[in-house]
Write a structure and sequence with these properties.
The chain has five domains: 5-107 and 463-491, no CATH class; 110-154 and 363-458, no CATH class; 173-347, Exo-inulinase, domain 1 (Jelly Rolls); 504-585, no CATH class; 598-748, no CATH class. A hairpin with a 6-residue loop joins strand 11 and strand 12. The strands form five sheets. Strands 6, 7, 8, 9, 10, 11, 12, 13, 14, 15, 16, 17 and 18 form a 13-stranded antiparallel beta sheet that branches. Strands 2-1-19 form a three-stranded antiparallel beta sheet, with no helix packed on it. It is of the alpha+beta class.
Amino acid sequence: MGLTMNCAKCHDHKYDPITHLDYYKFRAIFEPYQVRVDASPGQLDLANNGLTRVYDGNLEAATYLHKRGEESKADQSRKISAGSPAFLASGAWRTPKSIDLPLEAWRPDLQEFVQNGLLVQAQEKVAQAEAHRKKMQLQKAAADRKKDLTNSEDQDPAPNSREENSGDKPAVGGPVLVDDFSKARPELWELVGSDWRYQGGLLSLTKPSLGTHWLRSKATHPHDFEVSLKSQTTGGQIWKSVGIRFDVDQSGNNSHFVYTSVEGTKVHLAHTIEGKDVYTKAVVSRPIRLNQEYTLNLKVRGALINVALDGEFLFAYDLPSRQAGSVQLLAYDATADFYGIEVRPLPAETILEKASDNAKPIVASAPVITESVVELAEAKLKLAQAEYAFARARIDADNVNYRKKGKGTEENARRMFLERNLAEARVDLLDTKKAAQASSTIKNLEADLKAGKFPAYEPLAVSKVSLLKTPNKDALPAGDGYPKTSSGRRTALANWLTHRDHPLTARVAVNHIWLRHFGSPLVESIADFGLRAPKPVHQDLLDYLAVELIDSGWDMKRLHRLMLSSKTWRRSSSNLAADERTLAVDKSNRHYWRMNSRRMESQVLRDSLLHLGGTLDLTRGGPPVTPSPDVRRRSLYFVHSRDGRSKFLSTFDDADVFACYRRSESIVPQQALAMMNSQTATVAAKQIAETFSPDMNSGEFARAAFMKILAREPAEAELAESLSYLRNEPRREHFIHALINLNDFLVIR
C-alpha cells in the first residue's frame, strides 16, 4: 500500500492518519494466517521439493490491542475485528465472509497426482523387494552348489590341481580396452544418461548428477589388470568427484572405485556392496583443482591394488573380495571431461607395493546366504505387496467417500491396513531382537482379522505445518487436519486493495513498474506514499497510468506495453548532443528528456553471461539452489539468505534479504575484479567464444561478437583495434572477456 503501518504498532502514527487501533484491525486480517508445505507434482518428498502454501489455521483466532505495542500486555477484554484503516475505508471495505474451500485444500492427499505418485512408489517397493528375493534365492543356490563342490573335492582331491589352475591366469598381451573418446563407440560401452557429449575430441559430462550418469564397458576386464584414466573435473555443486570403478557386476550394485574429489581434496578408495557405498581408510590428501588434467592409474593383482596419480604412487590396499566385472567411468556431483582410458593385463613381472596396516578396510564381511535370509526376503516382499494393496484400497475408499466416484469401501481399506500390519509383524518375527513382541502382535492381529475388528488409519502425510512464531496461542492451527473453510479475511483484503476507490494500490504498482523500466520512480519515496512524501513532479502521469491499470482489469502486460512503446522509453540515454539550456534546467533528468543509464541488476548480469554462453538452465520451479559458480540455474532460484548468498551477486549490489523496494547501485573496485577474475566471468567468456564458428575470420568474428554481446556494430576505430588485438592474441575467449568488461555491456542505455 505504500504506507508505514508498522509505525502505529505502539501508538498513533506521528504523521499519517493511522491510529493505534487501525494497526491491530489490519493485523487481524492475518491473525489466522499459517504456513504449510504440500507435496508438489512429481515429487512427494516434502524435504526435497515441497510447495509452500498459506492458509487460515484457526478460524477463531482472536486479535487484541497490545498496550504500547508490547505482546505481553494484550488487552483481552476486547476482541478486535479485521478491518482497514479508517481513513481508507471509504465504503470499499467489506466485512469478511467465510469461504468454503475445495476438497484438495483441506485434504491435499486426495489430489490425483498425489494418489498416483503413492501408487507408483508402492509398486517400486514391490519390484525392489521381488528383485531382492530373487537375488537371495540365486545366491543361496550358488552357495549351495559351491558347498557341494567343496565337499566333493575334499573327498577326492585332484592331483596337480595347482598346476592345472595356473592356466586360468589371463595371458599377458596388449591392451584389452583403449578409447580416446574422440567419438562414440557403442560396441565398447554402455552409456546411461542424457548429459554426455562427444565434443572437441573428448567425452564431456555436461551436468552434475548423483551417480545417475555412467559409461560401463561391455566386456569384462582381466582379473589382474592395469587401468589408466586421463580426465579433468570441470565443475559440480559440492563434492565434484571423478574416477573409475572396476569389478562392476552385471547389476551394478557391487564394485570397487577410486576417485579424486575437489571438495574433499583427496584421492580415495571405496567399495559398493549391494548398492551401498562403503568408504575405507585408503585415502591420501591431495589438492584436486578444477579444469586441470589428471591421470589416475590403478594396478590390481588378486586382492592387492596400487593407486597412483600423475605417476606418483599414493597407496596400496588389500581388497576384501572381488568378482568378475567391467570398468565404469565415475562422476559424482560433478561435470567432467574424459580424454582417454586404457585397460591392459598386468604383467607377472610387475612388482606391486604391499598394503600397509594403516589402510585396513572398514567393511562388513559378506553376508552368509542361509535359508533364513531367503525367508526374510520373502517376508519383505509380502509386506511390500500388502502396502500396495492397502494404498490401493485406501485411495479407492477415499474417492468413493469424498469424490463420489469409483468402487471401494472404508471397511475393505481398514482390512487391508490390518493385513499390512500383520505382514510387518511377520518381518519383525525374523528379527531375534523383535521376535518376542512380534509373536504377540501376530496373535492379536490374527484374532482381530478373524473377528472382523479392523483398525482405523491416519490420512496420508503429504503435507506438514510450518508454524509461524507467534505468542498468540489462539492463532495456532486447531485440530489435526486443515479447516474446510477459510475466514475470508485475505479475500476481503484483496477485494479492498483492488477496488477502484482505493487511492493507493494502483499508484504504488505503477510506481514500481516505472522504476524497473526507467531506472527512477515517479514517487521517490517508493515505500511511503504518506503525508511526508513530497508531491511527485509527474502527478498527472502517475494518476493517468493508475487509471489505465484499473480500467484494463489490472492487466500488467498492457501497462508494460504502454510504457515500452512510449517515446520516453525509446529515447537515447546520451547527453552528448543535448541542448545547453536543457542541461542547465534539468541536469538530473527529472523530466525524462533522455533515458536513464543504469547498470544491470546482479541477477540479470549473471544470467546474461550464462545465456550468451548457451549454458543457462531455464528449468522452471523446484527447490532453492545453493549458490555456486558451477550452477547453471537462473539466479532467481538461488538460496537468498543472510548466511548463504552468492559472492558474485553480492558484489554487484544484490537484493536486500528482508526488503527490496529499490536496488542500490554502487561503484567499487571489487566489481571490476569480479568481471576480470571470477570463475563466473572467465568460464562464461570461454563458453561464449565457443558459440561462434571457428571458420570465421577475425573481422567476421569481431563484428559478430560486438552484435551478440553489445547489440551493435563496432565503430571503425573499434574494429581496427579489435583486429589488431586478435592478430596478437589468437585465443578468442580473451577478446570476449574484454567485451563483457566494457561499460556498454554492463550498463543498460
